[in-house]
Design brief:
By secondary structure, the chain is mainly alpha-helical. The protein has 2 domains: 1-101, Orthogonal Bundle (Rna Polymerase Sigma Factor, Chain: A), CATH 1.10.1740.10; 105-174, Orthogonal Bundle (Arc Repressor Mutant, subunit A), CATH 1.10.10. Helix content is 77%, strand content 0%. Helix 2 (18-40) runs antiparallel to helix 3, helix 3 (43-59) crosses helix 4 and helix 6 (130-140) crosses helix 8 (157-174). The protein is elongated and about 60 Å long.
């Protein structure tokens, strides 16, 4: 598909034209499916990734810039979705491994300290600047990847990363020295 045709289809897509969406999907989905499958080594997961990207394209179509390459935008979106898939998959495996490990409860005193530490961290988080607090909670409690947070808040991924970096730094600096290691 040439740049002029892509620009016309993008303009139509922004207006809600389903045929333009279908034309873009039929043109780009096969190569993105191959790309995602080559990164994931799992055809079903690759299909989910591409489907998610095109679903997000449809829901966010009004924010598209028709003067920029839609193909490049979608390629980056597929890559980010693959990264999110890897992160989520890693988290699920880590939780499963933790659940299978024998219970090594350190005792009641340690669990009280752990709950107190949790409360302290929650208080620190509540004092973060509003945007930083929102991004931190979307990441840690909402389990969203940086790319999803960036898309939802209309920010760059780097901005989200910086907010998370600053939030963690704020939390560490507010903890007592013997706990912030």
């Amino acid at each position: 598909m040439d740049a002029i045709q892509e620009r016309m289809l993008t303009r139509s897509l922004k207006a809600g034209d389903r045929d333009a969406f279908k034309a873009l999907f039929n043109s780009y989905a096969p190569s993105f499916l191959w790309f995602a499958a080559s990164l994931l080594k799992d055809q079903a997961a690759a299909e989910d990734v591409v489907q998610n990207v095109f679903m997000k394209l449809w829901t966010g179509r009004k924010r598209l810039d028709e003067n920029k390459s839609l193909k490049n935008y979608l390629l980056v979106a597929v890559r980010n979705e693959v990264f999110c898939h890897h992160r989520d998959s890693f988290s699920r495996r880590s939780e499963a491994i933790s659940a299978d490990m024998p219970d090594a409860s350190p005792g009641a005193d340690a669990s009280v300290s752990a709950s107190q530490l949790g409360e302290l961290v929650e208080r620190i988080i509540s004092t973060l600047p509003p945007r930083r607090n929102l991004i931190y909670n979307m990441s840690r409690k909402g389990h969203l990847c940086n790319a999803d947070i960036a898309a939802r808040l209309d920010l760059s991924v780097r901005t989200v990363e910086k907010h998370l970096e600053l939030a963690l730094s704020d939390i560490r600096s507010a903890l007592p020295p013997d706990l912030s290691r």
